[in-house]
Each structure stands twice: as structure tokens, then as C-alpha cells.
Amino acid sequence: MINLDPQRARWIRLRMAILCLVMLASLGGVLFSAYRVQILEGGEWRESAEKQRQRRLHIEPKRGAIYDRNGATLAASVEVPSASIDAAEMLRTVDPAAQPEFLVYAAGRLGQVLSLNANELATKLANKTRFTWLKRRISTDEVTALRALSDSKREPKPIRGISIEGEGRRYYPARELAAQLLGFVAPDGFGKDGLELSLDDEFRGHAEELKGLRDRGGRLIFSEGSANEESLKGHDVYLTIDSAIQHLAEHEIDAARQTYEAKSAMIVVVDPNTGEILALASTPGFNPNDYNISEVESRRNRVISDRFEPGSVMKVFTMASAIAAGKISLSDSIFCEEGAIRLGSVTIHDTHAHGWLSPTEVLVKSSNIGALKIGLTLGEPALYAGLRKFGFAEVTGLPLPGEASGVLRPRARPWFDIETANASFGQGVSVTTMQLAMAMAAIANGGRLLEPVLVHKVVDGHGAIVREGGVHLRRQAVPPGVARTVAQMLTGVVELGGTGTEAAITGFRVAGKTGTAQKADPVTGRYASNRFTSSFVGFVPVVRPRLVIAVIIDDPVIGHFGGDLAGPVFRRVGEGALRYLGVTSHEVSMRAQPPKGPTQ
């Protein structure tokens, strides 16, 4: 600037100063902005950045499995693919003006691949949400086709934003086996009916929310803080059910229902010494893998939910209560009125006319009149208390939804004499199959009324036992000596002259009782002459019993006597189960072949 005019030089210096001040101010602004962003507002910006690059992942643990007592799988969760789409990502590279046309195209292609309605799909995609289910639990072919739609090398208009992720699906490898007992799992992952519902919290495990990094395509590339899979996994449940005995029981009870054209049929097999349920079934049944195409009635667990009048089976517990109360002894004789007796305005009949019978003969020949005389001698309060001791009119305690308690006393008042008489031989009261099985188990095991055990053990994801089932004594129903006496009395039912000869098992002594109960007509309020509930409930062997089996056949069309219909089912299931369990007989066969006694 030496050769410049002084005035011009001053002007240049001023401009340089101004430029420096502007640059300094700009630098100061940048520094202040950096300070504001990184220091003053640093927390907010960091949180915003984390939200953009991270996703909160809701990790649903694998549902626990269900096994039988021997480890055979009854229910398991398998991973199947499900498809979703990020509609905003799908349209990100599409010109705004062309987006409506592309939405129609994408909906049509996706609908074609997944067999979905294209118009409904277009409406959902138009919302431009970041997550939309396309279809859950898709096939392998559908997965391949979806991946092809997003391949830019194969498709002129690739559809972006499609995600395919694994999702749990409940699978029942044995199909219909123990279906009503197990229940099923809905698409939302929650158990419906049966054990799937009652133990849902244990099966579901512990859901966890984790932070993860996803790339632009929405794929998880990193996650942290997750527990191992075993810790999150739901508990596995081992049942007392034995698949082999369950299969045998289901086969026989369903065959009987079809043979006799019955409305339904039920069966329970129990270990009387522990209360463990070895088999529990009702028919008709359903396949829980395809529960959505089954009838609601077929999904009901009739063993615990259906109440019915037990008929002559109730005589066993009337007799036991009377002997325990000292109101009757085996040496007594009871006059059975030659087959008919009038109480007030009601006449009660026996199937066959009988004169004097011993208490044992009252059970063997199934005399209604003999039973009602015993019940009236015992008295209403003692009879009611005795039946309650055997668990009637209360739930058994099974971990299953929908269990009925049954009914003993109407309208919470004492019985009239006719009601006491009827209750003595199983009319005017209602019970469940499970209640009958556990009550008979009390006769078999020395008078102990046990709580039925269905869950053998519960195991966590690491294999550690969370809890175990065990013997739970509810009460002493009758003294051991009384139970043994009644058990011996019941052996005559399946011997020559008894009503249950069809239930006898070659090589083993069987104790049990038949039942043939008329059903009430809901229209007339009277007992129908052509509708019955047929039953046989018993145990085998008599000494050191291993099995209690209760068989109920509801509303058969062909035949109706409990000994003829339910007895053979008891025999076949008992024979097969004893053989399977390796129980050998050291007893003389009590199988009756020649002419049968009166049937009831």
C-alpha cells in the first residue's frame, strides 16, 4: 500500500477490518452454536439422535412346552415367519406425484402373493405407517415370493420396506390327544381354554424390552442388554398324564360313543394312591392345531364341566357313610319290598323284584329300595355330610378353568324324605366325572380323599425345578376299615349275579359299581323314559389297587344299562393299562362267562 493514495489505503484497511470482524463474528456464531448444541442443548440432541438410530424392541420369549410324565411332547412352540411392511420406507424413493399409483401397484402385487384383498391392503398402506402387519404365519413359498418383490434386479418396481421375522406358533404334535385338557393358543400368543389358559403366565415367561440399532432397511444390526434366551423362556410343564394310557382311553371312549350313538362320553384314569391323573378325555374332541374350524362344544372339557345325575354309582358312598356311622352292618337284612315302594305320592321301583337282601346284595343287585332304606336310616343330615366328605358339591382343585362343583342340596335347605331317598341312589343330585373318580379312589386307597394331581413338575429355562406336584390329602372320608369293607363288597358287582360282569378283567379282582340314571326332560320337568346316563366307576386290582377308572356315556341311543355300555370300556382300558404298566396278576380270574345277573 506504499504506492497507494493514502485515502485509498485507509479505505482498503477499513474494508479488511470489516471483513475480519464479519469473519470473527461468524466464527463466534459457529462457536456459540456449537456450544449451544453440544453443551446447552446437548442432552436433548443426544436423545433425539438416539431415538432416530435406535429402536425399542419388545422381545417376546419362547412359550414353554408341555410334556407327559415320560417326556413325550404334547405342546411346543415353533418359529414361523410373519411379514410386515414399513409404508414410509416403501414410498421414500417414489416421486410424490406417483405415490398413489405406486400404492395401488404395491397392494396388488402383495395381495397376489399373500392371497389378501388388494383394496383393503391399499387402504392400510396409504396411512404410511412405519409398521403394518401384512400377514402373520406365512408359508415358505410366500416368503420366497415376498423377497422377490423387493429384489431390484428381478422387479421393475421393487417394493421396499418388507420385513420377514420369526414369530412363535403353538404346535400340538399328537393332534387330538388330550385336546380339551391342553386347550389352545390364539394368534395373539395368549392361551385359551385348558392348561394353556390356566397356566398362561408360567408358559409365557418374562417379556423384555431392549434397545437395538437398525439400518435403513429396518434390519437389526446390534442389540445390547439382553438376557440369555433360557432366562426369558417360559416354564416347561410336565403332566402326570401318560400318553400311552391317554391314547388308549381316548380310543375306547370314542369307539363306545360311536357304537352306542351317544351324545358324548367321558373317561378318567387315576392312580388312587397318589391322586395322579393318568388319562382324562371326553368325546367328541377337536384338533387344537385347527381349533378355529372346530365346534365350541367339542372344545369343552366335559370331565370337569358337565354335571349329571350319577344314578346307582352313588349307592357306594351312601353305603360307606352308613357303615362308618354304625347305622348298618354286613349281617343286617333289608326288605326290598318285592320291587316297589311308595313314599308319599311317589312310587320308587327296582329293575328286578327283590325280597330280603344283605347290604352287599343291595350293591351287587343295585337295589334302589335297599339303598333308600339305608339312606333314610342314616338320616338326611348324616347322609348329606357323608356325601360331602367324599368331595361332592365342591370342586376337586384341578388347575383347569370351568370346573363345576355339582349340586347336592337344593335351594340350601334340608332334604325332604323323598329327596333323601332319591339322593341315596343318585337321583336329584348332580356330580362330575372327576368327582366320581376321586370319590371311588377314596374307597380304593383306604378312605383318603385326595386332591387330583395333574402337574407333575414345572421346570424353568435352565432346567431347574420350579415346583413339583405331590400327594395332597383333602380329608379322611371314611375310616380305612370301612373303605376296605366296601371295596370287598364291590367285587360282587363284577362277579356272576352282579350288574357289572362286563367290567371284569381276566386274572384280576375288580371292584366297581354300575350306574344307569334317567335324564330329566327340561320341557316336562319329569324323567324321560328313553334318555339315560350310563356309567361304570371302579378300580383294579382290589388289593393294592393301581387304577381307578370312571366311564360315563351320555344319552346313548343303542342300549342304556351302565354295565353293558360302560363296563366293556372299563375292561378294555383296564386290561391295556395294566399290561402297559407291567402289573402282573397273582389272583384267580373273576371273569364271569355264563348267564348274567340283572343289568342296571
What's the short story on this structure?
Helix content is about 35%, strand content about 20%. The chain has about 600 residues and is α+β, with helices and mostly antiparallel strands. Strands 2, 3, 4, 5, 10, 18 and 19 form a seven-stranded mixed β-sheet that branches. It has a five-stranded antiparallel β-sheet with strand order 12-11-23-22-21, with helices on both faces.
Descriptive notes:
It is a single chain. This protein has 600 residues and is α+β, with helices and mostly antiparallel strands. The protein has two domains: 80-173, Alpha-Beta Complex (Penicillin-binding protein 2a (Domain 2)), CATH 3.90.1310.10; 243-581, DD-peptidase/beta-lactamase superfamily (Beta-lactamase), CATH 3.40.710.10. It is 35% helix and 22% strand. The longest helix has 35 residues, at 6-40. Mean pLDDT is 85; it is low at 587-600.
Distance between the termini: 133 Å
| Helical run tally | 20
Q: How confident is the prediction overall: mean pLDDT? A: 85
Radius of gyration: 37 Å
Percentage of residues in helical conformation? 25-40%
CATH architecture of the largest domain: 3-Layer(aba) Sandwich
What labels describe this entry?
5-stranded antiparallel beta sheet, single chain, Beta-lactamase, 20 helices, 600 residues, Penicillin-binding protein 2a (Domain 2), 7-stranded mixed beta sheet, 35% helix, alpha+beta, 2 domains, disordered C terminus
Secondary structure layout:
Layout: H1 6-40, H2 42-53, E1 54-59, E2 66-67, E3 73-85, H3 87-90, H4 99-114, H5 118-125, E4 132-135, H6 140-149, E5 162-171, H7 179-182, E6 184-185, E7 191-192, H8 194-198, H9 200-204, E8 208-214, E9 220-224, H10 229-232, E10 236-239, H11 243-259, E11 264-270, E12 277-283, H12 302-305, H13 315-324, E13 334-335, E14 340-343, E15 346-349, E16 356-357, H14 359-364, H15 368-378, H16 380-389, H17 417-424, H18 433-444, E17 448-450, E18 455-459, E19 465-468, E20 473-476, H19 480-490, E21 511-520, E22 527-540, E23 547-554, H20 562-581
Parallel strand pairs: 2-10
Antiparallel strand pairs: 1-8, 2-3, 3-4, 3-5, 6-7, 8-9, 10-18, 11-12, 11-23, 13-16, 14-15, 17-20, 18-19, 21-22, 22-23
Helix pairs in contact: 4-5, 4-6, 11-20, 13-15, 13-16, 13-19, 15-17
